[in-house]
Amino acid sequence: MKKFALIFVFGAVCLTSHLKAQTLDLPEKHRLGLGPIAGYDFKLKGPSYGAGLMYEYKPFRSVGFTAGLSYEQTRKELTGSDFSSDDEGLLKHHLYSASLGARYYVGSFYLGGALGYAYEYGESQMDNGTIIKGGSINSLYSSLGVGYQAPLRNGDLLEMELGSFGTKNSMKLGGTVKYKFLK
């Protein structure tokens, strides 16, 4: 029995010393990104801005999976014609979202999409000091965009994306720039 074990160990050592690992240029699998969001809300007809946080798991060179959190605010100047009165003010539409998505990469470029949950609420601040609460709603959040990831010297990425994002009540066209940390 000892002779068999000795031959087995000797054979295993010989085999492993001649094995060569394949070198694959696989991407870093885990990244965390943070950055501003800016766009124009075509439904509410006003500028929109906010911030986003995203985690990406990239198991393959051409495929990545994302999870994101974002806050967006759209502002619109209100005139008397919006209320059938002489009052003027400012509409603020707030949107919080959590989404899951996927990306397809071709080199440093990608096409991505995501679906998720959004919580929206609005308020109007009138020039006379009155604040009108607009209520809240839960919605389906969606985004579709194209982007580019520029590698930085320290291994992190600078990501730029243009696309459409939002809900059926507040759909925007805009972009984001994220700094993606190597996790």
Core attributes:
183 residues; mainly beta; 8-stranded antiparallel β-barrel; 2 helices; 8 strands
Task: Describe the structure concisely for a colleague.
This protein is mainly beta and 183 residues long. It has helices at 2-18, 80-83; strands at residues 30-41, 46-57, 63-78, 89-106, 109-126, 131-151, 157-167, 170-182.
- Please, what is the oligomeric state? single chain
Low-confidence stretches: 15-26
> Could you tell me the strand content as a percent range?
over 45%
Number of strands: 8
Arithmetic mean of pLDDT: 85
Strand order of the largest sheet: 1-2-3-4-5-6-7-8
Main beta-sheet strand count, sense and barrel state: 8 strands, antiparallel, barrel
Rg on CA atoms, Å: 25 Å
Q: Between the first and last Cα atoms, what is the distance in angstroms? A: 48 Å
Question: How would you portray this structure in words?
Answer:
By secondary structure, this protein is mostly beta strands. Helix content is 11%, strand content 66%. It has 2 helices and 8 strands. It has helices at residues 2-18, 80-83, and strands at residues 30-41, 46-57, 63-78, 89-106, 109-126, 131-151, 157-167, 170-182. The chain has an 8-stranded antiparallel beta barrel with strand order 1-2-3-4-5-6-7-8. Strand 5 (109-126) and strand 6 (131-151) form a beta hairpin. The longest helix has 17 residues, at 2-18. It is elongated.
